[in-house]
Design goal:
InterPro entries: AB_hydrolase_fold, Pept_S9_AS, Peptidase_S9_cat, Peptidase_S9B_N, Serine_Prot_S9B/DPPIV. It comes from Maribacter litoralis. It holds the Pfam family DPPIV_N. The chain is an alpha+beta fold. The protein has three domains: 131 residues, 7 Propeller (Methylamine Dehydrogenase, Chain H), CATH 2.130.10.10; 152 residues, Methanol Dehydrogenase, Chain A; 247 residues, Rossmann fold (3-Layer(aba) Sandwich). Helices cover 16% and strands 36% of the residues. The chain contains twelve helices and 43 strands. The strands form ten sheets. The chain has an eight-stranded mixed sheet, sandwiched between helices. Strands 13, 14, 15, 18 and 19 form a five-stranded antiparallel sheet that branches. The chain has a four-stranded antiparallel sheet with strand order 1-2-3-4, with no helix packed on it. α7 crosses α8. The longest helix is centred in the first third of the chain and has 16 residues.
């Protein structure tokens, strides 16, 4: 046996200590929650503006409570409801107050349908009497209290119903609902995914009327996915999915008179899309937003529900497209607040009740990124913006005249506010690339901090034993634009050495990856790669958001052209750095990012040696109407725009190493995209690697799935780059 000298033992021990202080982050740790941040449980401000409620679930007993807290002290002042006091409900997962906060709607047995839609069993709980009433024996969708809290409307089997709580009587409002044909009161798949809402009905102020949308999807083509499960035979899952250029649902607006049960159709100029309906403060006035198929002409109508008369309230047009938001706010006299990009940047506007422009409230070469609301008593509009830099977010208030602006939370990084109902307080969530979320309570009128609530110092201390490198933010001049960028280098970075470059991006319209905010799961994974000797970089190219309308919309009708040019040019420029090995450059992305990484290794085959694409679009002809046509118009109108940027049209360009991953249960970006890419590569006689995850949707998660996926990608990177 060889003798080991004492000096060698001491040296080995020292190296173990050094390694222990710079452990690489592992995939298992990331997805087993080792770096999970502490947060505030979702709170809901009460009508009094001084208190809020929080849902708590005891992990051991599964007892669920809705507890009441005081804003000023942050102390618990009572329990609104506890499942331990309700024999019928062992636990519940969500709750909704009636407008007068005398009743609660409790959600149980929730079953997901698509991204936002859910089925569930619901109960009404009377806070004073502690009485519990089951709304329906079967699972329903989107229940909503009437304004007086005496009834609950809901959708079941594509029909609209009204349940009267006291009598326990149910009235079926519509009768023509049929799966994959007619839908009343909730949206179809493409509206849910791209216009981001499910409940397609609204009570008016006194509960006398309900406005609802009806979707006739009879002529929408069906898409079928095999669900493999654990049985002997796979089962087909069939749903309506309108791909670019195909038929959409025929959407119509209807008004229900609750007392009589009469339903009247409302003609809003044969609207192609109806992405938003919202009652005004006057109980008989309804606002309806419509879009043409190209989504570049938005019209907001005022509907007199008593007379069924329609007039134009506002119109927005854009050479590219008009964004749909939830920022519309009606004031007491039905004048309204609206956000628009019409001056080249997203800003807040005030309009009169007749639709006349009264004032542009915010102005400047920066973007309003969130509209929080308007305190009419104090004449204060609250919003978040990029005034302190496009990668940062600050919180401000301003008068409706556009003056007396106050910075409320603007420390460099990302500030996000949650306001009390009466705008007395807000809880600010702050994070940056160096600081995990910190929660503080502030006065809304001036931003003065009242007290600290919670931080994540324990996480910061834990990370000190890991090899974590800072994000270095900068800009890079590419194709005539200064693009936001970050780079992460190994902790023991040596400028005299050569490092492989691994790029990450998403690049979709209006998106942002380069932001001064705390790490997500992908960031932790990148840190693990950096610890093993890679340099990770991310560049937000043309088409991404928060740098003005023109920067964002330059990619119109050419998705995948300018974005790919920017990633290739950025990789080439970064490869000129003395410490980058230009022979080892990789790129990866998910969804739109997978579309990008696939295009990059093909069109940039002299630049990228490796690419990973997860759940990529490989032809925009395979994706849905609303998203795709917003940016590309239809394939019939823009065939070259579709063909020139569809990677399966040029598989012969593949020279490097390519890994393609998809879930077979992806209802969003169908596995068809990858299957067509695979076949194209096979017929071009190109070798590549691929991975299929059975029955996994666009998120590809569940059990050990994420651990397996990210280890697979890490192993591919280490082998090929």
């Amino acid at each position: 046996m060889r003798k080991i000298h004492l000096f060698t033992l001491i040296l080995l021990s020292f190296n173990v200590i050094i390694w222990a202080q710079d452990k690489p982050i592992s995939v298992s740790e990331i997805y087993q929650g080792a770096f999970r941040t502490e947060g505030l449980e979702a709170l809901r401000s009460m009508n009094n503006g001084t208190q809020y409620t929080v849902l708590h679930t005891n992990r051991i007993s599964q007892e669920t409570t809705v507890d009441k807290y005081d804003y000023k002290t942050l102390e618990k002042v009572g329990t609104v409801v506890s499942s331990s006091d309700i024999a019928e409900i062992p636990s519940f997962s969500a709750y909704t107050f009636s407008d007068d906060e005398k009743k609660l709607l409790l959600s149980t047995e929730i079953e997901p349908i698509f991204r936002r839609s859910r089925l569930g069993i619901y109960y009404v709980y009377d806070i004073a009497t502690k009485n519990v009433v089951k709304v329906s024996e079967s699972k329903i969708q989107e229940p909503l209290f009437s304004p007086d809290g005496n009834r609950v409307a809901y959708v079941k089997d594509n029909n609209l119903y009204i349940f009267t709580i006291d009598t326990k009587k149910t009235e079926q409002v519509t009768t023509d609902g049929v799966k994959n044909q007619i839908i009343n009161g909730v949206t179809d798949w493409v509206y849910e995914e791209e216009f981001a809402f499910v409940r397609a009905y609204e009570w008016n102020a006194d509960g006398s009327k309900i406005a609802f949308l009806r979707f006739d999807e009879t002529n929408v083509p069906e898409f079928s996915m095999d669900v493999y499960g654990t049985g002997l035979y796979q089962q087909p899952y069939v749903f309506k999915y309108p791909k670019a250029g195909e038929n959409n649902s025929l959407v119509t607006l209807h008004l229900l008179d609750v007392a009589s049960g009469d339903i009247a159709a409302v003609d809003v100029n044969n609207a192609y899309y109806i992405p938003r309906i919202k009652w005004m403060n006057h109980k008989d006035m309804l606002s309806v937003q419509t879009l043409n198929r190209h989504q570049n002409h938005l019209t907001m109508y005022a509907v007199n529900a008593k007379k069924n008369e329609v007039s134009v309230l506002l119109e927005e047009k854009d050479d590219a497209y008009v964004d749909v938001t939830d920022n519309l706010t009606f004031l007491e006299d039905d004048s309204f607040i609206w956000t628009s990009e019409k001056d080249g940047w997203n800003h807040i506007y005030l309009y009169g009740e007749d639709g006349s422009l009264m004032n542009q409230i915010t102005k400047g070469d920066w973007e309003v990124t969130k509209y929080y609301g308007y305190d009419q008593n104090e004449d204060k509009i609250y919003y978040q913006s990029t005034e302190n830099g496009s990668i940062n977010r600050g919180v401000y208030n301003i008068s409706s005249a556009g003056d007396d602006k106050k910075a409320l939370a603007v420390v460099e990084g990302t500030n996000n506010a949650s306001f009390s109902t009466d705008f007395t307080y807000f809880i600010n969530t702050f994070s940056s690339a160096e600081m995990p979320p910190v929660y503080t309570l502030h006065k809304a009128v001036n931003g003065k901090k009242v007290k600290d609530i919670k931080d994540n110092d324990q996480l910061l201390q834990r990370l000190k034993s890991y090899a974590v490198s800072p994000k270095e933010f900068s800009t890079i001049s590419i194709n005539g634009n200064d693009l936001n960028m970050y780079m992460i280098k190994p902790k023991d970075f040596d400028a005299s050495k050569k490092y492989p470059l691994f790029m990450y991006q998403y690049s979709g319209p209006g998106s942002q990856n380069v932001s001064n905010s705390w790490m997500g799961a992908n960031d932790y994974w990148h840190q693990g790669l950096v610890a093993e000797g890679y340099i990770v970089a991310c560049v937000d190219g043309r088409g991404t958001g928060f740098k003005g309308r023109d920067f964002k919309k330059v990619t119109q009708k050419e998705l995948g052209k300018y974005e790919v040019e920017d990633q290739i040019a950025a990789a080439k420029k970064l490869s000129e750095l003395p410490y980058i090995d230009e022979e080892r450059t990789g790129i990866w992305g998910w969804s739109y990012g997978g579309f990008m990484s696939t295009n990059c290794i093909l069109k940039g085959n002299d630049t990228f040696e490796m690419a990973i694409a997860v759940a990529p679009v490989t032809s925009w002809a395979f994706y849905d109407t609303i998203y795709t046509e917003r940016y590309m118009q239809t394939p019939q109108e823009n065939q070259s725009g579709y063909d020139d940027n569809s990677p399966f049209n040029y598989p012969h360009l593949l020279e490097g190493d390519y890994l393609l991953i998809h879930g077979t249960g992806d209802d969003n970006v169908h596995v068809q995209n990858s299957m067509r890419m695979i076949e194209a590569l096979i017929q071009a006689n190109k070798q590549f690697d691929w991975g299929i995850y059975p029955d996994k949707n666009h998120g590809i998660y569940g059990g050990n799935t994420r651990i397996h996926l990210y280890n697979k990608m890490a192993n591919f990177i280490k082998e090929k780059l």
